[in-house]
């Protein structure tokens, strides 16, 4: 059983990406939520501008769709700098990085998404670039190999990752600012949807955007994606107006439940309960049962289930909670002698 979900960056098709870009805030004061990160960034940007220096390297980490790429572009816009974008998996060898770095001007931003997926040789090649703004580049091989020390302009590297834990300690320590992005509150998501609805010139009944926000798993990308689905539904099944009835029906068709869980979340929890007696179960085993990628489950599904208290991660594996069973109307299994949760299952 493979249940796709369009939340991950890789899975976004071109149309969805264009839609996202059109709704992306360009400057800090257009960004909603993440107040503490914005405040710290604003100070760092102001200070760097006053000193006429490029910003220090920044790492944004947190689940997908929370605004890491958006903030990288915002930082570049605020610094009036050019931004060049790449990603960990795309930079397979030192030459790929060299191509990017050799074209960089003072103050430019180099954005590397999925920075935890850089290979070790590429990572080691980047260290002196980050620290001393120079690289040692080897040309030719064997007897003719020559190492050229190549000076670089001072630039700002912005890395984004869903897994800060997978970043090597030497790479992590080379970022001057490390910011964790958290799930958004329902009121922040409503504000994001009000902005998006204005940009898309949608007419909405009172309360409808709050309804979409409450089903968006604390994630702006999900909120905007649901808005798009609801807009299509309203256009085809109604007059284009986002009424409560239209929004509820559209969300039902998308199989989004009142807590914002979708079919993949529910399949994950059902597999834990029905196949693994509520857990503990290893993530690889659950991934195999669902026919899904382990990375998708760890990056996209688990963070929100942990956040709402439907899942526990223990040393022995994943365990479903009583609240999750109640939410899904699943029967709890009585598990004998479970030391972690006596009497729960
Ligand atoms: P990530 O890089 O973390 O996966 P993105 O930066 O691609 O996430 O954000 C996904 C979408 O969510 C963006 O296209 C943008 O429209 C919206 N978004 C993200 N953060 C904000 C914010 N703070 N305010 C308004 N919209 C946002």
Describe this structure in words.
Helix 7 (186-199) packs across helix 8 and helix 9 (220-237) packs across helix 10. The protein has 3 domains: 9-180, Rossmann fold, CATH 3.40.50; 186-253, Helicase, Ruva Protein, domain 3 (Orthogonal Bundle), CATH 1.10.8; 263-342, Winged helix-like DNA-binding domain superfamily/Winged helix DNA-binding domain (Arc Repressor Mutant, subunit A). It has helices at residues 14-23, 35-51, 68-78, 94-101, 120-132, 169-173, 186-199, 208-214, 220-237, 244-253, 263-274, 283-290, 294-307, 322-328; strands spanning 58-61, 83-87, 109-113, 134-139, 146-151, 156-161, 177-180, 311-314, 317-320. It contains 14 helices and 9 strands. The protein is of the alpha/beta class. It is globular. A 5-stranded parallel β-sheet has the order 2-3-6-1-7, covered by helices on one side. Residues 1-10 and 337-345 have low confidence and may be disordered. The longest helix is centred in the middle third of the chain and has 18 residues, at 220-237. The relative contact order is 0.11. It binds adenosine-5'-diphosphate. Adenosine-5'-diphosphate binds at residues 9, 20, 23-25, 31-34, 64-70, 160, 192, 220-221, 224. The site of adenosine-5'-diphosphate (ADP) has 21 residues, from helix 1, helix 3 and helix 9.
Could you say which small molecules are bound to this protein? adenosine-5'-diphosphate
Integer-rounded radius of gyration: 23 Å
The CATH architecture of the largest domain would be 3-Layer(aba) Sandwich
The biggest beta sheet is recorded as: 5 strands, parallel
* Tally of helical runs: 14
Total number of β-strand segments? 9
CATH C-level name of the largest domain: Alpha Beta
Q: Which blocks of ≥5 consecutive residues have pLDDT under 50?
A: 1-10, 337-345
> Gap between N and C termini, in Å?
26 Å
Number of domains: 3
The succession of helices and strands, N to C, reads HHEHEHEHEEEHEHHHHHHHEEH
Q: Based on helices, strands and strand pairing, what is the structural class?
A: alpha/beta
Inertia-based shape: globular
Assign the CATH superfamily of the largest domain. P-loop containing nucleotide triphosphate hydrolases
User: How much of the residues is beta strand, in percent?
Assistant: 5-15%
CATH topology of the largest domain: Rossmann fold
Kindly report the average pLDDT value.
90
| Proportion in helices | 40-55%
Strand order of the biggest β-sheet: 2-3-6-1-7
